[in-house]
Fold:
Amino acid sequence: FFIILFAIYPIIYNIDISFQNLNVFTLNLGEKIYIGFQNYINIFHNPDFIPVLVNTIIFTFCSVFFQFIIGFMLALLFVNKTTPKLNNICRSFIFVGWVLPDIVVATIWKWLLSQQGGVINYILLQIHLINSPISWLSDPQYALIGVILANVWYGIPFNMMLLSGGLVGLPGEIYEAARIDGANKIQQFFHLTVPLMKPTIFATLILGLIFTLKVFGLIVTMTGGGPVNSSNILSLWSYQTSFDYFEFGQGAAISNILLVIMLISSIFYIRITSKEESYA
Structure:
């Protein structure tokens, strides 16, 4: 009942209104005006669609890639059994970032990236990488980079915890046999750790992809999708279309496009993991 009420019904309702001419003028007519795929056609012909879609792809790929790489490095570091107490303390401090509300994280990073008095600009100036402060969140050239930095930092702890759990469960006797056979650390990582971690790696990447596609509060607080849509993504554009321009049908159509992308990613993950299990 809970799943039907809070998951299935909203999805079905959203799909239904995406085929309607539902806006501020038709909302109170008392009858549904179905227009077929016109909302989707209008979205695909909207001049903002391609830039927002490209932003979504860049934002998602960069966020998931760097979250995973840095999270994996930290997981490998903190799985070291020589200093378990120190590792647990460090992991706890890093994981605090994940439990913070996205609005809080966005506010912190908005201050860090501010043009005047921002810590990021101060550090870059001190090490002479830049000659003048960068307008990270108000310059169309850098706005997307700014929100990617914030989202990468936000997602690292989640990746680290999932990958740490996978690393802890790896059988130690296999590594002992590899050491006896003369395999070094790099060979052990690529020939043992990565193959054995495939199910955890795929799960981490897919969950990271889904969470990144759903990012909303971070971008709303930091840039609002601007300037000039330079940091806008599909999830925020759907909200703006529905509640700023009151085109509820088109807003639903955008969110359904996002839903399809998530479903394709989930199906891909299920197929990959099913093959891995069948081979095992």
